[in-house]
Amino acid sequence: YRGDSSPEGRNEGWSSFQDNFDKRSPHYEDNGYETQPSHHRDNDRSVVMRGVQEDRKGRHSPYPFRGSGRRVRWRREGNIHVTVSGNGKPVMREMKNTQDGAQGSWFKVTIPHGIKYDKIWLMNSIQSLCSVCFTPVDFHYVKNGARFFVQEASTASALMDVSYKIYDEENQKIPIFVNPSAVPYSVRNKLEPEEMEKLKLAFNKRFDVSQQSLDLRKLRFDPNLVSQDIEIILNRRNCMAAALQIIKKNFPKLLSLNLSCNKLYQLDGLSDIVHMVPTIKILNLSKNELNSLWELNKMKGLKLEELWLRGNPLCDSFPDQSTYVSAIIECFPKLLRLDGQELPSPVVIDSDTPCAIKPSKENYEGSDTLKNMILQFLKQYYLIYDSGNRYDLLSTYHHKACFSLTIPFHSEDPALSSLCAYFKDSRNMKTVKDPNLRIQQLKHTNGDIVRALCVLPKTQHDLNSFMVDMWFRTSTMVCFSVSGVFKEVEGGSQDCVRAFTRTFITTPASSSSLCIVNDELFVMEASPKTTQSAFSIPVPTPSTSSVATFSKEQQQMVQAFSTQSGMNCQWSQKCLQDNGWNYTRAGQVFCMLKTEGKIPEEAFKEIP
């Protein structure tokens, strides 16, 4: 990684990136009329908006209505009469057709701070509580809020009844504001039937039936459209909506869509592709003007296998290539290729690698291959977990994995107060009575899980303390538990030793790898006896051929380590073995244990 290589620097940089997405708001209409910002950037009306930063973790107070009297607001367009009662709930008293009688009455629905929420989750949550089925028109994010339009007073009234009844992940109620509106922009500027037919003909010429691919690069300059004075600018929602309608109707099995070189700077309109064209596997968005990862989040539901983003400003917003790749994979977990490069498969372990963990106890049934796979998995998992950059664990988890943490915390027991760092996320069903809070504390998706792990204290696990039990196995599932001890390496509880039990439910990702689908972590205080013996080097079993059984290179490492550390060859060999023959790591562990006085004197005595 470039820049600060410390764990703190890496985590702070990522956190800053995650929490401060450069959310750029394109020109959206107010009450249905498109407002043009004063700052234009090119002749297709693409506009550079100043980035609006939103703290995703902040809690927001809803906007209260003040006063107890009744207020009446008149809108002269279409004779819409809205009365706001004393409790702040609008009541429709009279409803007539708007200026476009054929369209009926339109209402603008606004969710303050809605930019924090995924579109699919938000719409499903609203629809599940709404007494009327509705179709959101022109859903988009403007400034920090989410906005869409609906028709008819009955739908508007039903949506108002949903306000403050939905809880987000922070257990905050979500307000929904409904106001009368003029006809939405995309409806008012809907392409005429003749234009739609000409656009369809242009698409047919760009469609490759053998590959089920559609090439829409530089669509605005398509000679067949320009010659007929048809201007298609995909940043405009009415144009993108028309394009998606044609694709849905005429190319229902489309696999590849090329939208490169269209000056796209927002993907609000394209977000509907998730349900309109779910078959898409290859999407080319290269050489556009996308500035923020937030735009890609709007299409999270697509099961893309290949994505092209090269040539967009957002590609330069990451500190390094691995962070860029990890962020994109979080949006599209099934991605196999990015910008033409094959992505590494989500593999954390390799059963061909020699197993370095020797669990002190083991209850195991199964083949040696599976045994080695589990042990190697645990070794590599905890090496990454303790490295300070837990974001590298992202590919270890299934994109819909689940994680929970529990501690035996009792606020009245001062002896357990050192576990406070884990209390906020502890999900003990006996003590957490609020069902919404229990749901909040259950982490879903690999991204949410890794972010939760990064918040937990930095640790060092004692691999020699591990006890492993593989307790269930099928052809599609491997379930195992690991217990042991670790110590915190920074903060107010530095050097405190904890005991833990962790249960993994995994699925085979390949013949030599595992993918976590469920992870349960239980953390508790370690007993005094366990604390005393933790992180000490076990006495090696005497052997007359302790070095001879290893390769020449390993024998040389043992001799060098013995010379530098002052320990005899037998203890030097054990230290190197326990650390996977990683000379640097073995040296670090040796220095730490020597400082703590945990290496016995016999380690420094010559073996007769």
From TrEMBL:
Q: Which Pfam families match?
A: LRR_NXF1-5 (PF24048), NXF_NTF2 (PF22602), Tap-RNA_bind (PF09162), TAP_C (PF03943)
Family per record: Belongs to the NXF family.
Disordered: annotated span: 1-68
Under SMART domains, the record lists:
TAP_C
Q: Which organism is it from?
A: Cervus elaphus hippelaphus
Give residue spans, biased composition: Basic and acidic residues: 1-11, 20-30, 37-57
Q: Which GO terms describe its molecular function?
A: RNA binding
Residues of the TAP-C domain: 552-607
Question: Per UniProt, which keywords does this protein have?
Answer: Cytoplasm, Leucine-rich repeat, mRNA transport, Nucleus, Repeat, Transport
* Single GO BP term: poly(A)+ mRNA export from nucleus
What residues does the NTF2 domain cover?
373-523
Q: Name one GO cellular component term.
A: cytoplasm
| UniProt protein name | NXF2
Q: Where is this protein localized, as stated in its record?
A: Cytoplasm; Nucleus, Nucleoplasm
The answer, when asked if Cytoplasm is one of the entry's keywords, is yes
Where is this chain primarily localised? Answer: cytoplasm
